[in-house]
Specification:
Oligomer: single chain
Number of domains: 1
Largest sheet: 7 strands, mixed
Number of helices: 12
Bound molecules: zinc ion
CATH architecture: 4-Layer Sandwich
Distance between the termini: 43 Å
Strand order of the largest sheet: 7-8-9-10-11-12-13
Shape: globular
Radius of gyration: 20 Å
Length: 334
């Protein structure tokens, strides 16, 4: 008996993706229209179909709020800040391109459609934040991205990019030299290895990087994104970092990772040591947010492996911070 997912794939190929018909592997060129059509043909997810957002504002779309844990409802870490018709991605966890397409449907922001994904900022090179990087390099290219991907991240990004392109050498060769005739130059990536400071600026967006302590990583960053209407600070993965209060002072939104302080206290010493130096408790997030005087806290990359519920994490932030606290979920739009 065929598994149900395979059956669904066949249904999509026969009724929606006409170009699949002659391609058993289903990897022939697929236009964006077909992709949109296929996505819209799926039953809507309850509570996620909303009215298009005002494109003149800056929006945050949580593409993935997860961790290395394989939680079905939480994809890998990836956040989009959308402003001026561009989606500025922070990290590329597993499933990032499909999640961006879902974000485009939920928010009505075309910048999140795959062929428009053209810039990404990596906080650090942990696998849960980068497994979607080859997806981001290759899938939008196949779907018609007309420019090279721009990628910003810590030292090591150049080597990772070169290795990924080498790993997919045969796929790239077939798509360039075969009937698809894709442009080889457009699959290459313009990489920028960063240091703390101003790392990116265009007509609508300014991105500053700051170093954060993430256990034994030599290079891990958080980002401050500034547009005409919003200042957004993303912690990245970080251990408790008092300096963040000054960096995030007066920001509209602080997006911070978190674990439950109470949950961790009940765990074995090794787990306490790891999480205590690589990550930040929700109690500490509240202290930082209060000191910084931010407008709103969004929790993401919530580490439930150590225990604790969503409600407990929010309550722990509220011990010190009396502003709005949101337990972020995939495809939330702010
Ligand atoms: Zn992580
Ligand atoms: Zn990490």
């Amino acid at each position: 008996m065929r598994p149900p997912t395979y059956t669904l794939g066949l249904v999509l190929c026969s009724s929606v993706l006409a170009s699949c018909a002659g391609s058993p592997a289903g990897d022939s060129p697929v236009s964006l229209d077909q992709t949109v059509e296929a996505a819209e043909a799926l039953p809507p997810r309850a509570g996620t179909q909303t009215a298009p957002r005002d494109p003149s504002r800056t929006w945050i779309v949580l593409l993935g709020t997860g961790t290395p844990g394989a939680e079905p409802d939480r994809f890998g870490p990836a956040t989009a800040v959308v402003s001026g018709g561009t989606a500025y991605l922070i990290d590329a966890g597993p499933g990032v391109v499909r999640r961006a397409m879902a974000g485009a449907l939920v928010s009505g922001l075309p910048a999140l459609q795959p062929q428009n994904l053209r810039v990404v900022f990596f906080t650090h090179l942990h696998s849960d934040h980068t497994i979607g990087y080859p997806d981001l390099i290759l899938s939008p290219w196949v779907l018609g991205r007309a420019v090279r991907l721009q990628a910003y991240g810590p030292p090591g990004l150049d080597a990772m990019t070169t290795a990924l392109l080498e790993a997919y050498r045969e796929d790239i060769r077939v798509r360039v030299e075969g009937p698809e005739q894709l442009r080889r130059d457009l699959v290459t990536v313009e990489t920028h290895e960063i240091e703390p400071g101003l790392i990116y600026e265009d007509a609508v967006m300014r991105v500053e990087a700051f170093a954060v302590p993430h256990g034994t990583w030599d290079h891990a960053f958080g980002f401050k994104l500034t547009t005409a209407d919003r200042t957004i600070v993303i912690s990245g993965d970080t251990g408790p970092f008092d300096g963040l209060a000054e960096i995030a002072a007066g920001a509209d939104v602080l997006i911070h990772e978190a674990y439950s302080a109470e949950g961790l206290r009940r765990r074995e010493p090794e787990t306490q040591l790891y999480h205590g130096t690589f990550h930040t408790s929700a109690v500490k997030v509240g202290e930082i947010a209060a000191q910084a005087g931010v407008g709103m806290v969004i929790l993401h990359h919530q580490l439930h492996l150590v225990g604790g519920t969503a409600e407990q994490m929010v309550e722990q932030v509220r011990i010190s911070f009396d502003g709005e606290v949101v337990y972020g979920r995939d495809l939330d739009v702010f």
